[in-house]
Amino acid sequence: MQKIDNHKRINDILFGPLERPALAWLAAHMPKWVTPDLLTIIGLLSSLLIFVSYWLTQKSSAFLWLASFGFVLNWFGDSLDGTLARYRKIERPKYGFFVDHIVDAVDEVLVFLGLGVSPYVTFTIANLALVAYLLVSVQVYISTAVHSVFKISYGKLGPTEIRMIAILANTIIFFLGNPLVAVPYFGQVALYDVIVSAVAIILVYIFISSSIIQMRTLAKVDAEPNKKN
Question: Which end of the chain lies in a sparser environment, N or C, as judged by fewer CB atoms within 10 Å?
Fold first, then answer.
């Protein structure tokens, strides 16, 4: 097992060329009173805002905009806390890893449950997507412990892209409503259900394919000492 506080971070995402310079600029211009812990709290509170906003869409679809704003705030807090710590050279590797990903798990639960209590996504589908996201998260954390490589992007897809998909979906639903879409074998399905289901399928594929690849790799690694003996 590798040391969790000395891992390599891989985040090769589609929006990386835009995100990395933006985070670097923000870290360099943050006031002294803005700390990594404060940013983590902002990220957590923003996920609560997303949950409440989706719940309030039962009253008005205008709250979809508030949910989208919550995703922007969540990106700001969740993505910048580690960057700021590294910029100021005040990293706490073990504490940061633990707290960041405990908060991530809470964020994921609040976001998907929020979708489930909205009038746009079936509660069952929202929960299946949550399970898929948590499976990928668990796989990432185990891989970090085994390989000392923290990989949070697959096929250019990472948390930032998931947030962008959510914001785009909110915008589409606000202007078009939630029309029914013909899906083979399933009949008429609400558009937002289709979007969330597609995300869930992609996440399950990532979980299965990545797990198989890593199992094969680790089997070869463990076999090497036996060959030498």
Answer: C
**What total of structural domains would you count in the chain?**
1
Residue 184 lies in a domain: yes
Report yes or no on 2 lying in a domain: no
For the chain, what is the total number of helices (H) and then of strands (E)? 7, 4
- Cα torsion for 30, 31, 36, 38, to the nearest 10°? -120
The answer to whether residue 195 is domain-embedded is: yes
Q: CA 59, CA 56: separation in Å to the nearest integer?
A: 5
In a domain, 205, yes or no: yes
| Helix axes 159-176 and 191-228, enclosed angle (nearest 10) | 170
What are the pLDDT tens digits along the chain (229 aa)? 455 556 666 667 777 788 899 999 999 999 999 999 999 999 999 999 999 999 999 999 999 999 999 999 999 999 999 999 999 999 988 898 899 989 999 999 999 999 999 999 999 999 999 999 999 999 888 888 887 777 776 767 788 989 999 999 999 999 999 999 999 988 999 999 999 999 999 999 999 998 998 889 888 887 776 665 5
pTM greater than 0.85 (yes/no): yes
Sequence-ordered list of residues with C-beta below 8 angstroms from that of 92, at least 6 positions apart, any chain: 85
Containing structural domain, residue 70: 7-228
